[in-house]
Structure formats: structure tokens, C-alpha cells
Amino acid sequence: MTQASFDMTNALSSVPGAMSTMPTSSAKPVMQLEGVSVFYGSYEAVRGTTMPVREQQITAMIGPSGCGKSTILRSLNRMNDLIPGARIGGKITFHGQDLYAPDVDPIQVRRRIGMVFQKPNPFPKSIYENVAYGLRINGIKDNMDDRVEKALRDGALWDEVKDKLKSSGLALSGGQQQRLCIARAIAVQPDVILMDEPCSALDPIATGKIEDLMHELARTYTIVIVTHNMQQAARVSHYTAFFTAEVDEQQVRHGRLIEFNDTGRIFTNPTDKRTEDYITGRFG
Amino acid sequence: MTTQSSTLTQKDRGRITDRAFWLLCIAAGITVLVILAAILVSTLQQSWPAMSKAGENGFFTSKLWDPNIGKFGILPFVFGTLVTSLIAVALAVPVSIGIALFLTELAPRRIKGSIVTLIDLLAAVPSVVFGLWGIYVLAPAMTPVYKWLHDTLGGIPVLGALFGEVSALNFMTAGLVLAIMIVPIITSITREVFDTVPDSDKQAAWALGATRWEMIKGAVFPHSFGGLVGGVMLGLGRAMGETIAVALLIGNSIQITANLFAPGTSIPAAIVNYFGEAGGDYTSALIGMGVVLFVVTVIVNLLAQAIVRRAEIRMRGAKA
């Protein structure tokens, strides 16, 4: 059972599932996780995770609370570095380069691998300045207006805000704020966008808009999304990683990747009993 | 059933205590207003003889202060108060923000507590001690620096006027000591404000690839603007009202000059220096200066509140 994840990564070129989003199995991995563990001090929060993140595909991470899916997500752009005592074991590569090599600058990593958070968190600045901020810190100064407009268009927000770019980002609705955060993230044109439960604070209509937007964005960007909502994973993703928490011999809980496969496979024909239990438990 | 429904209407002991507590709080609140009004009324009353003759003695408009001939122009005192306070704020604000950022963003937990204690200790030092330290330690130590500044910048048209001939006691030293005195209050307020910046905002900046400074500019400062202005205003208020340290350090020379290295005077310094020897209109004029200081402080605070409110509406949008 512990080898499940390794088997699954080899079995990727499989039959497409019944989902609307067909995985492009030929897509090459932008990122690759090899036996990645995340530690907080001496506590191993997540154990040995091996999976690819494929280019211009949406990879979903699902599982119960405390299974380590967000922890893994945050290790992908070195956000875990900000937590004192956090470190990783194993290896994460990004375009073949070791993300945690000593000479790698976490700030450069985050400029290439953007992130959208659970709670919409626009800065208390104008809509325009929210988007421009990322561009400015990346040293981009020319054609600011055009770049901001493009990011807001790509974030499916332009039509709603084009007449009030100077008003505060915090005056928008929750769903609009989250799309502003997505526009802010894509303004700097990262390779990968990480989304940590981006819709959990939103109503169904706003959620639907974000999901549509994700499909659009996947034409250009590689997306990894953590979600509590299995239907959402089934609706939007090409690949799904199922995590759960296990208790070891010393009665310590660790998060663990159980199964990784095409989303269609995971939801119709999971290999692991635990995946099946989780999925059917929620649906039934 | 009947007993139960009767308890719904009964006024029990708890209700009475609640009422008493409410009255106590109202009374405490009103006391503040009464004291404030009493101060304003009695000082206005006592300063009226001098203020009502403003036309003859030049109270609000003249820079001539000579009690022997009945001239009470307070402008040199207002000028000295403003100049020393502004020097103090200009020097203290960057330092305080730096300390507060160090404490909230950089300092390891272990040393954070001891630094906070040290800064609070600075606030506990009596102002007369600051004044004496200023006279015996800081003023002699700074004189060569002032001289160097005068020699270097003295020839430049506008700057030269600010950095003129150096006196032993002057506006600059008074402002410098005031700055040290207001650093604790500004630091403690800005630190608390920085602590309230939501982690989610900082994370957003980090995730965009911000460096620490870019994160502070993008996430910490926009959130803290209101609190920062509030802290600066409290510091400014404290600096304008400071008496003994300024009286000891400013040199007590009644003049208006652009030269920061010249001796001057301030409202609180004048009151503490002259009150003993004054009488009649002279006393009345000194109390009138106190009223002016009070009014200026209130105006500064109202202005600050207006700035904060404007900024908050702009930052938070319709929700504010």
C-alpha cells in the first residue's frame, strides 16, 4: 500500500476518465516531487510524497483535514520557509532544477511559482495598485496600464472593475476579491499557480466563476489546487492526488499521499481502498 | 407555570447591580468632560486680561515680548515649541518605525521581550534627568558635529540659514532630547499596529516574490497608516507639552530665527521660567500661552483624525 503512489505515477498514460477535462498525458512534468517529507521541528507532518505536476494541466490535491495537502502545496513555492523550524526531506525539482538547492533564492522561486490563498487577501490598496504591486517588485515599469488591464482581463475581472480601478480592492465582493488575487498572481506571468482552497470562502456562483477561470488559465499556466470539495476536484482537474492521515507505531499522525492518477480514474476506479472509501463516503 | 412566568417580570438583584454599574461608567465618562471644561474655563478666565488686550500688547500677532513695557507677543514661544517638536518628530519617527519593524519582523522571540522592556524603561526616565543629561553630556558631544555641519553646509543658500552659528544650547539639542523622549511611545504604538497586520496580507506579498522590504512596503505599511499617524501625533503632543527638559536645553532666548543651532524658547519653558516672578497681566499672558498650546494640540489631533479617516476610507473602500 505504501508503494501505491509510485505505481500510480508509472501508470499515468492510462485510459481517459469520463470527466470533461481530459488529461494530456504527454504533457511533461514542470515539477516533480520525489519522496518529499515536510518537517516542523522534529515532527514529520507529511511523509514521502512522490508525484509530478504536469505542464498546463490542473492537478488537484484532495483528502481529509490534516492530511498534509496544504503543507505539500506550500512546500512547492517555499512558503514553508517562512515558518520557523520547517524543512523538507526528499527532492522537489522545477524544470529539472532542485528547488531546495543551497544556491536557490526562495524569492526567485516565488516569482516563478505564484500562489492564491484560501481567504481572498487583496492588499488595502486600489484595484490597480493590487495588480501593479507584483509587477513593480519584479522590476517591471513599462506599459503598466496595459499589463494591469491584461492581468485583470485574464483574471475575468476587467469588465466588472474597469470603471473603478482607483477604488479599494477591499470594496469588491468576495468572489471578485479572489479573482483580483488571481489577476495579481498572473500579472507577473508565473509558470505555476498554486491555489490553496481558493473557493472555500465563496458562494456557489462565485465558485463557478473561479472554476471557469481555472479552465481558461490552464491553457497558459500549470495549476495545482488544494480543495476540500471533491466535486470541485472532479470538475476542474486533470490529475488528482489523494492524501490521508495515518497514525504510525508511535501513535504519531503523518499526512501521506495514497494515490495519484488521472482525475477520471481516481473518481471512477480508484486503486486504493482508502481512496474509494473517502470518495464514496462523501458522495453516498 | 405561574411561578416561572412571574420571574420573567421580576426585577432581581442582578438587574440592580447592572444598573449601578451603568451609572458608574456614565459618571466616570462625564467626569473627564467636566474636568476638561473646568480647565478650559478657568484658564480662559485668568488669561482674559492679557488676551482681551491683544490689540495693544500684540498677544497673538507680535514677536515682541517685554513684560516691563506691557508687550506680550507670544510668537517666539509658539515658534520654539513648533520647531523643537518638529525636529523631535522628524528624528524619532524613522527610528521608532525601524525599532518597531525590527521587533515585529526580524527579532527572534528570545530577545524581543528584553528590547521592549528596555524601551519602556526609557519612557520611565524622569524628564529632568533627560534635561541634565542633555546639558552635561549630549550638548558638549554634539557641538563639534553642529560646527562641522555649519562649516560644510553653511555656504549653501537655503540650508545655510538653517545651519548657522553654533550656540552651546539651541533648538537642535532640545529637539534631539525630545526625540529620545518620544521614541518609546511612538515605538510602542507602531509596534502594536504592525502586530495587527493580518498574516494573510504578508503571505500574499511573500507569494508574489517580495523581499522583506517589499513585503513591508506592500503589506505592512498600507495596513498601518492610521495607527502610524496616531502614534506620531501622540509623540508630537508629548513633545509640544514637554517642559523641564526643554527649559533646561533650549537656551531661553526670546527670538525667531531659522538657525537651528541658535538658542530659543518654548511655551512650557516660558511658563515654568517666568511664572514665579510674574504678576497681573504678565501672569495672565503666561496662562494665555498655556491656552494657546492646548488649542494647538487639539487642532493637531483633529487634523490627525481627519487624515486617518480619509486614508481608511480610501484603503478599505465602502466598508469603512
Overall description:
The complex is a heterodimer of chains A (284) and B (320). Chain A is α/β, with parallel strands linked by helices. Chain A has 11 helices and 10 strands. Chain A has a single domain (4-283), classed as P-loop containing nucleotide triphosphate hydrolases (Rossmann fold, 3-Layer(aba) Sandwich), CATH 3.40.50.300. Helix content of chain A is 35%, strand content 26%. Chain A has a 10-stranded mixed sheet, with helices on both faces. In chain A, strand 1 (29-40) and strand 2 (43-54) form a beta hairpin. Mean pLDDT of chain A is 87; it is low at 1-20. Chain B is mainly alpha-helical. Chain B has one domain: MetI-like fold (Orthogonal Bundle), CATH 1.10.3720.10. In chain B, 77% of the residues lie in helices and 1% in strands. Chain B has helices at residues 2-9, 13-52, 54-57, 75-106, 109-124, 127-153, 157-162, 171-195, 199-207, 212-241, 244-249, 267-274, 281-316, and strands spanning 65-66, 71-72. At the A-B interface, helix 3, helix 4 and helix 7 of A face helix 9, helix 10 and helix 13 of B.
| CATH level 1 class label of chain B | Mainly Alpha
| Number of contiguous helices of chain A | 11
Strand arrangement in the largest pleated sheet of chain A: 5-4-1-2-10-9-3-8-7-6
Q: Enumerate the spans of chain A where pLDDT stays under 50 for 5 or more consecutive residues.
A: 1-20
What is the overall shape of chain B? globular
Order of helices and strands of chain A: HEEEHEEHEHHHHEHEHEEHH
Summarize the structure.
The complex is a heterodimer of chains A (284) and B (320). Helices cover 35% and strands 26% of the residues of chain A. Chain A is of the alpha/beta class and 284 residues long.
List keywords for this structure.
heterodimer; A: 284 residues; alpha/beta; Rossmann fold; 11 helices; disordered N terminus; B: mainly alpha; MetI-like fold; two-stranded antiparallel sheet; 77% helix
